């Protein structure tokens, strides 16, 4: 009898282990995500050298920082991997970089700095996908705001996460119409598609809302080539302008503000990118109460976004400001979970019309043109305080929100005639 029991003991133990495994299996299955461990290769193609290189370097670090965050937690269970290629802000270099990225196995391309680059990239991605069915790539646009990208030249393969110029100008001119001290405006922007659109849509918006405002001067200057803006400041002062509206970014805004401070121009600046690398330092204390920014976020958003911004600064000794990065990871994770796939065609279809929660409420990727619908904020450069403590570039100053425009206020119509895959 003893011998029988000894022989049966291992069998009983094995049976018990099998029963335990069967019990645990449903729980493990419930915890699994549809694409656990699948790697999503993403390449950001943007300038990492030259006068505007510091902006691109900052943004690439942001993508790699948040790739780690969202790889650890997203509804699809995928792992995001982000690398960068320097396009030197050139459309030609961008098309070469696109080929390299595809050859490396990337099927998700990110870009944002320079609408002329964005238009070339969107066209190239569309043509590539038409010629290579089954090997498609998606273009995720985090900052290029030319309205044509989601209107006359819209593409099924392009999704924009920044607000376009018509949206920003709708909000900006809505804010400016109630400022009686704005009487004479000078328009100054970079000489490429973005700068042209800024001037066009400001004129349209202000004519509808404040027809009494005079435009007393207008200039377009070469992109990332001007090192001394003193002659432009002299022209602005001579025009009698009390306000400058500019779409400038990077070194072109930094050097413009520097020249204004040195030249004693005391008018106001309405901008898109006052919080971007280098400009806070140029503003210093001199721009207090005079420099405004219209954007989809700001340095003092609070909550989880604020904790991430602080963590980014601690890790890199730099300021994070391209918040569309977060929206890209949020929406991709959800779309991939919904599609149960990382295939760009299926993910694109899942992104269309997607509603998702972000750091400033519920957003929607509009199906008609792939333009994200989102709230916008007007902020002004002021001293940091207990309520708004984050100080970019250790200036002691910050961007303080003075107005918020819900999605329905800043939303603008589209003329896009989307051509979708069969």
Can you describe this structure?
The protein is an alpha/beta fold. The chain folds into two domains: 39-164 and 302-374, Response regulator (Rossmann fold), CATH 3.40.50; 166-299 and 376-409, Rossmann fold (3-Layer(aba) Sandwich), CATH 3.40.50.2300. 42% of the residues lie in helices and 19% in strands. It has 13 helices and 15 strands. It has helices at 2-31, 53-72, 91-103, 115-131, 165-176, 193-209, 230-239, 251-263, 279-283, 303-316, 324-339, 344-351, 407-410, and strands at residues 39-46, 79-86, 108-111, 138-141, 158-160, 184-190, 214-221, 243-245, 268-271, 291-295, 355-358, 361-365, 372-373, 376-383, 397-405. The protein has a seven-stranded mixed sheet with strand order 7-6-8-9-10-14-15, sandwiched between helices. Strands 2-1-3-4-5 form a five-stranded parallel sheet, sandwiched between helices. It has a three-stranded antiparallel sheet with strand order 11-12-13. Strand 11 and strand 12 (361-365) form a beta hairpin. Helix 5 runs parallel beside helix 6 (193-209). The longest helix is centred in the first third of the chain and has 30 residues, at 2-31. The chain is globular, with a radius of gyration of 25 Å. The chain starts with a helix and ends in a 12-residue tail after the last helix. The model is unreliable at 1-8 (pLDDT under 50).
